[in-house]
């Protein structure tokens, strides 16, 4: 049995038994927050529990390392939409200790791409087109600095509402303990 067939089989029972009913909510976050965090598997259930979040409480965006990589990329677009259209009044950037992005080896990733069939000559074409693969795939060496950088990008974005607090935290992936790096309430601009 494939993973997909296991998922579909389980899903059929989930729907037939109406197990979805306990998760019913709206598209608007009850706690009016949007969270950008890492896609690390250890945080999937741990982080919401550690923050006392239930289904429907928050918009949660996940990316490798909880990094805002581009001011007009998909992550920033999602945050902007959450604030202006989906009633989020606060932003939380939550990195974590022992993140895979802190030890990422871009050369290794590129070699894995080639091993799995990506034509090596494509990287020259991308470089010629202005895309630096090492920069695009880069991680960070210090999670605290990475969180601060992402908070700064969100807070200082030209389209961001300056009255929205943008918080920066670092989670411990084993315990769920949260360390405040930036308290967004201390840095909001009054209208």
Automatic annotation (TrEMBL):
EC number: 4.2.1.1
Top-rank lineage group of the source organism: Bacteria
Keyword vocabulary terms for this entry: Metal-binding, Zinc
Record Pfam families: Pro_CA (PF00484)
Transport among keywords: no
Record carries keyword Ion transport: no
Reactions mediated catalytically: hydrogencarbonate + H(+) = CO2 + H2O
Cofactor(s) the record lists: Zn(2+)
Family, per entry: Belongs to the beta-class carbonic anhydrase family.
Protein name listed in UniProt: carbonic anhydrase
Species for this entry: Sporosarcina oncorhynchi
Species lineage: Bacteria, Bacillati, Bacillota, Bacilli, Bacillales
């Amino acid at each position: 049995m494939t993973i997909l067939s296991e998922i579909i089989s389980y899903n059929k029972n989930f729907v037939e038994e109406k197990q979805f009913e306990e998760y019913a909510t709206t598209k608007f976050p009850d706690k009016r927050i949007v969270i950008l965090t890492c896609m690390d598997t250890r945080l999937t259930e741990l982080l919401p529990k550690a923050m006392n979040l239930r289904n429907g409480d928050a918009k949660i965006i996940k990316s490798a390392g909880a990094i805002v990589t581009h001011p007009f990329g998909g992550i920033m677009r999602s945050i902007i939409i959450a604030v202006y259209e989906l009633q989020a009044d606060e932003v939380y950037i939550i990195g974590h200790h022992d993140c895979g992005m802190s030890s990422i080896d871009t050369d290794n990733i590129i070699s894995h791409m080639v091993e799995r069939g990506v034509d090596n000559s494509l990287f020259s074409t991308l470089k010629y087109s202005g895309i630096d693969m090492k920069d695009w795939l880069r991680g960070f060496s210090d999670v605290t600095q990475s969180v601060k950088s992402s908070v700064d990008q969100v807070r200082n974005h030209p389209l961001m509402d300056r009255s929205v607090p943008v918080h920066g935290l670092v989670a411990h992936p084993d315990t769920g303990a949260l360390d405040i790096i930036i308290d967004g309430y201390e840095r909001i601009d009054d209208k």
